[in-house]
Design brief:
The chain has 347 residues and is α/β, with parallel strands linked by helices. Helix content is 39%, strand content 15%. It contains 12 helices and 15 strands. Strands 5-4-3-2-1-15-12-9-6 form a 9-stranded parallel beta sheet.
C-alpha cells in the first residue's frame, strides 16, 4: 500500500471514529406521548411503534399505572409528569408521604432505572398560576424522598415552563425573566443549580409565528432562512436557537448561566391554522432532529446538544384551544407516519 493510500485510509478511519463518537454522545430526541383523545391506539401498540422507530425516551404527562406498567421492561426511559391538580396534596406532605407517593404511583409499576425525569406540573407559572406556590415545595419534598432512596442523582426533578416566562426575548441578549414571575423562577433556578438539574422549557416557534406573522417570518421559524440575524456578534438563523439563547441570557442575568436546558416540548402542527401543514411539520421537526443528533447547540452554547422531546406521538382530538392544538401528531392513529421523519438523522 502506498503512502498516499495509507493517508486516505487514516483519514477515512479518523472521520468514521469522529462520527461514531458524535453518535454515542448525541443529545437524545424523545417524543411526548399525550393521551387527550378518543380512538387512540392501545398502549401496547404505541410502545411497539415507539420501539420500531428507534425512540428511546418518552414523556408522559401523568402517573397512569397502566401506562407505566406497559413501559416496564422496555428499556425506554421516561419523563413522568406530576399533574398540576395534585400539587397541593404533595406540597403539604412530608418526606415520608412523598416516599409513599413515589412508591405507590411510580416505582410499584416500573423499575427506577427507566425513570429519567420527573416533571412537576406543566406550564404552571403562566397558564395555571393558582398552583405556582406549590411547585417548589413539591420539588423539595420529592427531592428529599429521592435522596432518601439514593435516587437523587439518577432521577432529576424540574418543572416544565412555557418559553414565554422570558420577557424582551428579542434580541436574545436582552432577555429577562418576566418580573412578575421572578419570585417563583429564581428559587427554582437555585434548586436546579444546587442539584445539577435542567431547566425544562417548552419551545414553540409555531406559536411565535402565528401570534406575530408580521414580525416573525415563516422561514425563520422553520430553519429556512440563509440570512442570519446578528446579536452581540452571534448569528441566528432560526427562532428555535434564538428562544434557547433568550432563556440562557435570562438565566445569566440571574447568576445561573450554567444550568442545562431540556426542551420538554416542541413541534409543528399538520393542520388547523396559518402555517400548519404536513410539509412544514416535516421541515421543522426534521431540522430539530438534525440539530440535536449533530450536537450543534445554539450560538451561545455551540457544540452543546440540547435534549428535546418532540410533540406529539399522535393527534389528540380532545385537547382544548385552537384547532391546530389537535394536530401535532407525528403518527396517524393507524401507526403510519404523518410525514417521513427519521429519529436517527445525522448530518
Amino acid at each position: 500500500m502506498s503512502l498516499m493510500e495509507y493517508y486516505h485510509l487514516f483519514l477515512s478511519t479518523f472521520y468514521a471514529l469522529i462520527l461514531l463518537y458524535s453518535l454515542a454522545d448525541a443529545a437524545p430526541v424523545g417524543v411526548c406521548y399525550g393521551q387527550v383523545g378518543n380512538g387512540l391506539p392501545t398502549i401496547d401498540y404505541a410502545i411497539n411503534l415507539i420501539k420500531s422507530n428507534g425512540i428511546s425516551r418518552i414523556r408522559i404527562f401523568d402517573v397512569n399505572p397502566d401506562v407505566l406498567q406497559a413501559f416496564s421492561g422496555t428499556n425506554i426511559e421516561l419523563m413522568v409528569g406530576v399533574p398540576n391538580e395534585i400539587l397541593p396534596l404533595l406540597a403539604n406532605g412530608t418526606t415520608y408521604s412523598s416516599l409513599q407517593w413515589l412508591q405507590t404511583n411510580i416505582f410499584d409499576h416500573i423499575a427506577v432505572n427507566q425513570i429519567r425525569y420527573i416533571g412537576v406540573g406543566n406550564e404552571i407559572f403562566l397558564k395555571d398560576t393558582t398552583y405556582t406556590p406549590y411547585v417548589l415545595p413539591v420539588i423539595h419534598n420529592l427531592y428529599e424522598a429521592l435522596y432518601t432512596l439514593g435516587l437523587s442523582e439518577k432521577i432529576k426533578l424540574s418543572s416544565p415552563c412555557a418559553a414565554s416566562i422570558v420577557s424582551h426575548s428579542y434580541p436574545p441578549s436582552l432577555a429577562i425573566f418576566d418580573p412578575n414571575l421572578r419570585y417563583a423562577i429564581v428559587p427554582l433556578l437555585q434548586f436546579l443549580h444546587d442539584t445539577s438539574s435542567p431547566l425544562m422549557v417548552n419551545v414553540y416557534p409555531f406559536f411565535s409565528y402565528t401570534n406575530d406573522p408580521e414580525h416573525v417570518s415563516l422561514e425563520y421559524a422553520l430553519f429556512k432562512t440563509n440570512d442570519p440575524v446578528y446579536d452581540c456578534g452571534l448569528p441566528y438563523t432560526n427562532l428555535f436557537d434564538a428562544t434557547i439563547d433568550a432563556v440562557v441570557s435570562a438565566m445569566e442575568k440571574e447568576g445561573f448561566g450554567g444550568i442545562e436546558i431540556v426542551v420538554t416540548e416542541t413541534g409543528w402542527p399538520t393542520s388547523g391554522g396559518i402555517g400548519a401543514s404536513v410539509d412544514n411539520a416535516l421541515v421543522y421537526n426534521d431540522n430539530v432532529v438534525r440539530k440535536v443528533k449533530n450536537n450543534v447547540g445554539s450560538p451561545k452554547r455551540p457544540g452543546t446538544g440540547v435534549e428535546v422531546f418532540l410533540f406529539d406521538l399522535f393527534d389528540e382530538n380532545e385537547k382544548d384551544g385552537e384547532e391546530f392544538e389537535r394536530h401535532f401528531g407525528i403518527f396517524g392513529l393507524d401507526g403510519v407516519k404523518a410525514y417521513d421523519l427519521s429519529f436517527n438523522l445525522v448530518n
